[in-house]
Specification:
It comes from Intrasporangium chromatireducens Q5-1. This is Plastocyanin. One of its GO terms (molecular function) is copper ion binding. Keywords: Copper, Metal-binding, Signal. InterPro entries: BlueCu_1 (IPR000923), Cupredoxin (IPR008972), ET_Amicyanin (IPR052721). The chain is an alpha/beta fold. It folds into two domains: about 160 residues, Immunoglobulin-like, CATH 2.60.40; about 110 residues, Immunoglobulin-like. The chain is built from three helices and 19 strands. Strands 6-8-4-1-2-12-11-14-17 form a nine-stranded mixed β-sheet, covered by helices on one side. The longest helix is centred in the middle third of the chain and has 29 residues. The protein starts with a helix and ends with a strand.
């Protein structure tokens, strides 16, 4: 069984147990005595060093009553959205310049939602600004649910693989779980997502060499925001291949040497004869993309991903004679 499939099976089993058995005193809540309650859901997850980013809502499912509010909180540097989509605002490529980017990155003005199928969008949510994405950058988003139904939402940045559901029942219906129970479930989901990311990085380390550096890694659960191997040594005249090939999910990255380019989206410089100055791959997102750099002068050359350097996605190439 593949590691990701194994993790999903483990998660399903543990959550099934948690739904029927009190875990450390976190038993499901009994009937409530008031309406208009606010529930909290985490948006995204990350490791303490920010190198592993999770594509998940914590928890992914929540059961509330009519009149209740869900408050989503950004929990990662990686940008996400909370998006209740409709036919006019479907999932698609989340990238500046695409026709759909405008509605995907913009917060809608409504504070309530009354039935499934209504379009509502949080706009870009993250714990830090993203240079290549437009402001404002939100850290929270709230919606009050005024109608019964099953409300499914997605992240426009990461598509159908990052999905959450709000199950809304009639006012006065007993709550099946407490906020404390949801927090425990979110903690479990986060742990499994981060484990998946660490397994992805371990696989990269087994394949990377001084001449072959992997640019991040991703599957349908986790993102590795790091170069593997980030610090390499080669000889003058040799080439380093920067490889996006471990990204099963098309994540945008750059490999950029020297000062910031005027246009961070576009390639700059001559990668076949590099000795100084700005050199950049531009933003590449295809899983099969590579950027090959041949070094013609001894020295140490520092590089970074212009999108994710704030998460520690940096490296260096030392060139010797």
């Amino acid at each position: 069984m593949k590691p990701t499939r194994w993790l999903r099976a483990l998660l399903a089993a543990m959550l099934a147990i948690g739904a029927t058995v009190a875990v450390g005193g976190l038993a499901p809540a009994s009937a409530h005595t008031w309406t208009g309650r606010t529930w909290t859901v985490q948006v995204g997850s990350e490791s303490s060093n920010h190198l592993i980013q999770g594509m998940n809502y914590g928890p992914s499912d929540i059961w509330i009553d009519v009149g209740d509010t869900v408050h989503w909180k950004a929990a990662s540097m990686e940008p996400h959205t909370v998006s209740f989509i409709d036919a006019a605002h479907p999932l698609g490529d989340f990238f500046p310049g695409t026709p759909s980017f405008g509605y995907m990155s913009t917060r809608t003005w409504q504070h309530t939602i009354s039935k499934p199928g209504q379009f509502r969008n949080s706009g870009i949510m993250a714990t830090m600004p993203i240079d290549l994405l437009p402001a404002p950058n939100y850290t929270s988003y709230s919606l009050k649910f005024t109608g019964v139904g099953t409300y499914t939402y997605y992240c426009y940045v990461h598509g159908a693989m990052m999905k959450g559901t709000v199950h809304v029942r009639a006012a006065g219906t007993p709550y099946p779980h407490s906020q404390r129970w949801y927090n425990a479930r979110a903690t479990l989901e986060r742990a499994l997502v981060l484990l998946d990311g660490r397994l992805l990085r371990l696989k990269e380390r087994l394949l990377a060499t001084n001449h072959h550096v992997f640019v991040g890694a991703a599957d349908d659960t986790a993102l590795v925001m790091a170069f593997t191997r980030p610090h390499v040594t080669v000889h003058v005249g040799q080439t380093v291949t920067f490889d996006w090939g471990r990204n099963g999910f098309p994540v945008p990255h750059t490999v950029t040497f020297g000062p910031d380019p005027a246009n961070p989206l576009a390639p700059v410089g001559d990668p076949q004869h590099y000795s100084h100055g700005t050199l950049s791959s531009g933003v590449l997102i295809a899983p099969t993309s590579t950027f090959k750099v041949t070094f013609t002068k001894a020295g140490t050359y520092h590089y970074r991903c212009l999108i994710h350097d704030g998460m520690g996605m940096v490296g260096s190439v030392t060139v010797v004679r």
